[in-house]
Amino acid sequence: MSTKISHFGTYPDGREILLYTISNSKGMEVSVTDIGAALVSVLLPDGKGGKTDVVLGFDKGEAYLGNPSFFGTVIGPSANRTGGAAFTLDGIQYRLDANDGPNNLHSHKDKGYHKMLWKAIPGENGVCFALDDPDGNMGFPGNKKVSVTYILDEQNTLTLHYHGNSDRRTVLNLTNHSYFNLNSHDSGTITGHTLWLGASRYTIVAEGSIPTGELAAVEGTPMDFRAAREVGRDIDADTEQLRITGGYDHNWVIDGWDGTLRHFATVTAPGTGRTMKAYTTLPGVQFYAGNFIEDQEGKGGAQYGFRTGLCLETQYFPDTVNHPAFPSCIFGDGTAYDSVTAYEFVLENPGSKS
Fold first, then answer.
1. What are the two backbone dihedrals, phi and then psi, of residue 114, each rounded to the nearest 5 degrees?
2. In the chain, which residues have pLDDT < 50?
3. From 114, 177, 185, 193, active-site residue
4. pLDDT for position 349
5. Rounded alpha-carbon distances, angstroms, from residue 123 to 1, 20, 75, 117, 129
């Protein structure tokens, strides 16, 4: 195992942006950066002496200052949507930036954790990124200290360990917004991928993609991935839920959630020999099929756009702070936030397709 550090750009205030590349003996290579604590690339051996990159991203750190689709970044302090861009905690109402119609999305599009330059602490088989977030920033209470540690092991598993605390009770709901395309980051749409989700229910949303509070059964609907099937099979089905979100962009409720690490998803790109198994300690996952990826240039001149990557954003449910029946995302004042999400890459007969 080894970690290499290289120049990746310059932050607006003049600080250097660095790229950290972690590799194992199996030929897998992962690169992460201190801007947004972002996952920049995941290179898998292709069986022909080369490597295939399976996440969307950029070649330079400065591009992550734009990044309208949040490629690869850590989102916080509150991922996903907050209805009405407000919440009440301990009798005090907190107003957030209304950046998604009347609602809040991913805390703040310009000031959120995905645009911050994190402090990096590299190790032999990974990197820990940490930051301090002051009381009142983006409208959230509490002086917060958060970290995310990326670890690559010899079993081709990339583990993300998140930790956070605050001197006041606050919202902490962190996620990673990586877009995966197991054919290759530059290969077109992911609608031919197969997906299995260990989730019997999902959170119904109203206009604006804000949960109503209802947990609906997936059975008999296009939301049922309990038997693996193509992402594109029913993605454009004429149902109210898919019309609201332009395709899959919902929170699935992970079956049997108890806070332990649980296998919740398997993604396969048929014909490539590449499978990704995903695990988490969190209660929900936002499966997003890239319905609103803006046309843009990515790594190596690749053209990204509509449904060219899919996300599995592990999380507490969207707008959970405004739904007492949902699992709570309130931490701090002695109660720490701690979660783990892991992506295991299984390679069989690599090189049959690239």
1. -70, -15
2. 350-354
3. 177
4. 63
5. 10, 10, 23, 18, 11
Please give the Cα distance from 134 to 347 (Å, whole number).
Answer: 43
pLDDT at 151: 98
Tell me, yes or no, if 313 is annotated catalytic: yes
Burial class (CB in 10 A: 0-12, 13-18, 19+), 300: exposed
Helices (H) and strands (E) in the chain — how many of each? 1, 29
Q: Within 10 A of 214 (CB to CB), how many other CB atoms are there? A: 12
How many residues make up the chain in this entry?
A: 354
SS3 100: strand
Of 213, 243, 245, the residue nearest 318 (C-alpha): 213
Cα–Cα–Cα angle for 321, 266, 82, nearest 5°?
A: 15
177 labelled catalytic: yes
Which neighbouring-strand residues pair with 30? 22, 42
| DSSP H or E segment with residue 175 | strand 175-176
- Name the catalytic one among 106, 114, 193, 313: 313
Q: Give the closest residue to 39 by CA, choosing from 27, 56, 51.
A: 56
